[in-house]
Amino acid sequence: MSVDTSGAAQGAALRSDRTVLGNGLTVVGEHNPFAATVAAGYFVRTGARDETAEIAGVSHFLEHMMFKGTDRRTAADINRSFDELGAQYNAFTSEERTVYYGAVLPERLSELLDLLSDMMRPALRQEDFDVEKNVILEEIAMYEDRPHFRVFEVAGRRFWNGHPLGHSVLGGQDSIRALTREQMLTYFGRRYAPSNLILAVAGAYDWEAVTEEVASLTGAWEPFDAGRALARPDPAQGTGETEDSKLERVHTAVFAPGYAADDERRYAAAILGSVLGDDSGSRLFWSLVDKGLADSASLGHEASDGAGAFVGYVSSAPERATEVLDIYRRVLVQAQDDTLDAEEWRRAQRKLATGLTLRAETPLGRLVSLGVGYQSLGRYQSVQDVVDAVMRSSLEGGRALLADRPFDRLYLHTLGPANVPS
Amino acid sequence: MSVDTSGAAQGAALRSDRTVLGNGLTVVGEHNPFAATVAAGYFVRTGARDETAEIAGVSHFLEHMMFKGTDRRTAADINRSFDELGAQYNAFTSEERTVYYGAVLPERLSELLDLLSDMMRPALRQEDFDVEKNVILEEIAMYEDRPHFRVFEVAGRRFWNGHPLGHSVLGGQDSIRALTREQMLTYFGRRYAPSNLILAVAGAYDWEAVTEEVASLTGAWEPFDAGRALARPDPAQGTGETEDSKLERVHTAVFAPGYAADDERRYAAAILGSVLGDDSGSRLFWSLVDKGLADSASLGHEASDGAGAFVGYVSSAPERATEVLDIYRRVLVQAQDDTLDAEEWRRAQRKLATGLTLRAETPLGRLVSLGVGYQSLGRYQSVQDVVDAVMRSSLEGGRALLADRPFDRLYLHTLGPANVPS
User: Fold this and answer.
1) Which of A246, A294, A296 sits opposite B246 (nearest CB)?
2) With a threshold of 0.90, does the pTM exceed it?
3) Is the ipTM of this complex over 0.90?
């Protein structure tokens, strides 16, 4: 009962590297001499949870602006440079963090590091800010036709009950309209401290060359402190409802209290989430989707900085919503009264372990877990370390989580046409 | 100006394998001794285009039923077997084909082949058929809240103008409700001929063991003929409109005539699609998304069996829809009058080539292009072969496509609230 990720032909474990530069920037690497590519990315420990209501959405708006030019490059230069590198690249913003990354052939790594590092010190020009504000407003408007997204916005806010993990990543039309370039500059100056960033590199690279280049590229970055308040969550329970007569289906987001990203119980919570709510075979799947009662019914565990939650989703026809929500709730509550089965626990462990292994097969796939892992724990975890932790996580640990009865404290929020029971 | 996919550390090209069994089943492989996993999948040359209106949606419904059991296995057995193998697995149905695949650690390949091969001879039990019909109806209903999907359903049907490439993969509520198990059996017996299937394997494997095992597993499969009519398309042009007052945004699907999967011009068409409509930097992106006029504006080329099309999408606020569609159309039409720029052509070539390389980095990522490539061309193409073809595709070839003026023959279909101009 072990999953070996080392790869028959690859043999030994991969080497991990770490250097902290004088300005406080941490550079971490996982060296894979067999990789055909290399991926690199900046992981910034800032997101919606680090915003006030007045500047809601600034992290995500800023992420867009980072592509709009620096003192050395215009927006078109940045776009052209990525293309000329033949890079796959992207960026994303969450409640927790903002990440900028790309993957290239190994001989182009130096140019990729130059481009990404330059982007981390953006020009934030007023004219670009004004144009990009419309792009952000368009993106917010686009989600109005996506009920799955909308129900999580409102449910998360209600469940987190004032805790910053309930903040909206996109912000609102109003906060974005009112946002000024000066507010963004202030936020940038407060959050993008070198010590609040990690540069991660995965794949084929020369560590000495990487660290020398990054030290030179970021040498002028001024160090300062950028902390994060870790408020204790006081999550809501119960139900909520948003009526929208324009919808055809009832969309329900489900939350329950969970575990933080540095809590050892997060592994058992992830396995438990998979036993109950994996979307290709789980108690919820067999009770609702396989029976044709709901088009989707799932649950997982999300471990964040200082807090965590079980997060689920279910969607059905309005006329079946009462029955479907009853079954959804009953499956979770009954799991607390039944006993967890050793066999289903083992299958979920293996499913998670294989998923981890397959996602880590490419430098780009590996990069995000490498960077997020470092940011959450402050240390390196190999894929094998995580797989071992999952496979070691005992059935008794899962039963202990259920004994805390997290699913007696569910928050369910429904979005759908009128008279939806909840 | 070349992109080397062989991988610094991997050196030589990967070996390709091919065996045609006595029953007509073709087994193909791409052997990668450095891979930590192996992927395998059945590619069935059947999909929505091989259906009549009476049985619309049967290919996709059948894909679901293939997971519901065989003479040797129940549905629960199949699900449990995949989990116990630690497999990542899935299936999909398109107009063109139905594909069933999984990825495992190399020592589990034999069990994966046994499971997938057994699934290809399903029991199709009446009680499973009745329950799964509700699952399919739920899946169809789910798309009612997804306007992006809905607009492509209607636009594709109109553009293809009676050609089977315009058939709906899901089918309709009515055709699914009326479908009988006997009709599905007839369809299965007509389409799942061994000669109409390809089994593809990518990653770390022993070819002799694979072919021996598959020959034994599929030895009882009866050969018969399963062709496909390749009607000549007569695509529509102009505009169409579907009003839905419940929507917040105007969603527009765009089609124009393109090239078949075995037409050499497909490479130039893909590059041209990227120049005009790549979603991270292209003429449409800079004219519409970057300016904050549309939340999305893209174009690509889809090469199918015997026919192809440029396919695009644009979405905006209702009050800006006229302006946005004018600009969208003008960008395409003007490309036919302007000259294509050598620099933008080269960038799009490189972008496509890198994307191909990165997607092929894992056995599971490689599997689909390996199987689809074999099915389209009847021969092996390495990733390097495709990359070379893209990089060799000349600017003059792109200009020749534009000289045919495909964008004078656009079909645009809008889905949105009332009074949307088109």
Assistant:
1) A246
2) no
3) no
